[in-house]
């Protein structure tokens, strides 16, 4: 039922965006809408090959982007949390502001960089999954860095004196704080993942939504909805929702259990 | 009285004797001031500590005891004056010292891993680490609790773990900030026994407390600090039987500060 409502509101906005088509016409009564959901669910149940190719690529791209961004953002966040340097406040403000980078703009910038005429054009990365990973890494990096900076700063408040007394080098301090904050940092990483898996703007520009190559869940949903192929769109919508919720729930359970164990 | 009690010749002798055994002594402070935001927390403190026995910084809350300890450990820098450990600067001496805080910093790991952390940071070879940890846990009476999350331990156990962690590499000097504040008597006894054992093994202990009875039990010499000023520095026997400073006498008599 909720899905129906979601769909209907979705379709109305859709109509205004893609005004030249009228998919509503093909989807006017309840029977058809429930049959679309039925098809969607059966595609999931029967492990439809196209559907799973798309889901798999989505996960690969977004997890890849989050992994790359984390490797850079976690130490970066910790470094900014610990080091005192001129302009630090400005960096913190900038980093926090960059959490709201519009994916479309990031997509555009990466597009310009990777396009034939662009500085990295010779690498031939445009319209490949690699380009999508790059774009999503850029979107996600400030999110993970800003959230982990806060986490590490809070932890350092508590650990700082001990680490100084022990004579830790900055690297040793950062390693200690990252390790002891690992379960809280998982929340920062999950926030990044949530953003990556859900965004359309950047991947559609740099990926191009090419079938069997760069098609991910969000871009496919946008495309199939505009084509009026609601079954696939809905199937993917359900998958996207389920994945996002269950991965976040899993992360929460892990970090909660661990926090209870280690305090 | 700012520069402490006068040294008698006999005491100098005794102290010189222990200097030979202890590379970080004497601990000397000359005209140390420490202020923050224009407020003076330590006011012209000078002292000379030569003996390797337990030195207790005694005084009411807010006297500047913890700040004095941190100045000695080099976590804070004096705004004026100088502190030296033997012929070493405070910064150099810190490598051979360890400190615990009133509220112990417990890493979010097991007790065992809390101790291992020190050894890893200090670059102790992998193969030697666990034996050191086991010995330290045993000395602190925590052998059975090493596998528990440190932050789940009781207050007294946490303080003992913090002291065990500080002492795991047998530093020359151990600085303890109010090691038994907020502990019940049984836990206090456990912590004091551990401090006693460590002191007896030749480690110089410099600790703060506001607890007169504890100072009596543990101190070889007492520094009485009040409102940032060192009002008296004397051997414990002398200090408790006949305090020379009137403020100290009032404090010992249990009178509340005016």
* Helix count, DSSP H or I runs of 4 or more residues of chain A: 11
Low-pLDDT segments of chain A: 1-29
Termini gap of chain A: 42 Å
Proportion of β residues of chain B? 15-25%
Largest interface: A-B, 15 and 22 residues
Number of helices of chain B: 10
Mean pLDDT of chain B: 90
For the sheet with most strands of chain A, the description reads: none
How much helix is in the residues of chain A? Answer: over 70%
Counting structural domains of chain A, the number is 1
- Note the overall shape of chain A: globular
Our Rg estimate of chain A from Cα atoms comes to 22 Å
Going by helix content, strand content and strand pairing, the class of chain B is: alpha/beta
Largest beta-sheet characterization of chain B: 6 strands, mixed
Instruction: Report the C-alpha radius of gyration of chain B, rounded.
Output: 18 Å
By secondary-structure content and strand pairing, the structural class of chain A works out as: mainly alpha
Q: Specify the overall morphology of chain B.
A: globular
| Helix proportion of chain B | 25-40%
**Ends apart, CA distance between termini of chain B:** 20 Å
Question: What oligomeric state do the depicted chains represent?
Answer: heterodimer
Sum up the structure in keywords:
heterodimer, A: 263 residues, mainly alpha, MetI-like fold, 11 helices, globular, disordered N terminus, B: 258 residues, alpha/beta, 6-stranded mixed sheet, 4-stranded antiparallel sheet, 10 strands
In a few lines, what is going on in this structure?
The complex is a heterodimer of chains A (263) and B (258). Chain A is mostly helical and 263 residues long. Chain A has helices spanning 2-17, 30-45, 49-82, 88-97, 103-114, 129-166, 170-180, 182-198, 201-207, 217-227, 230-262.
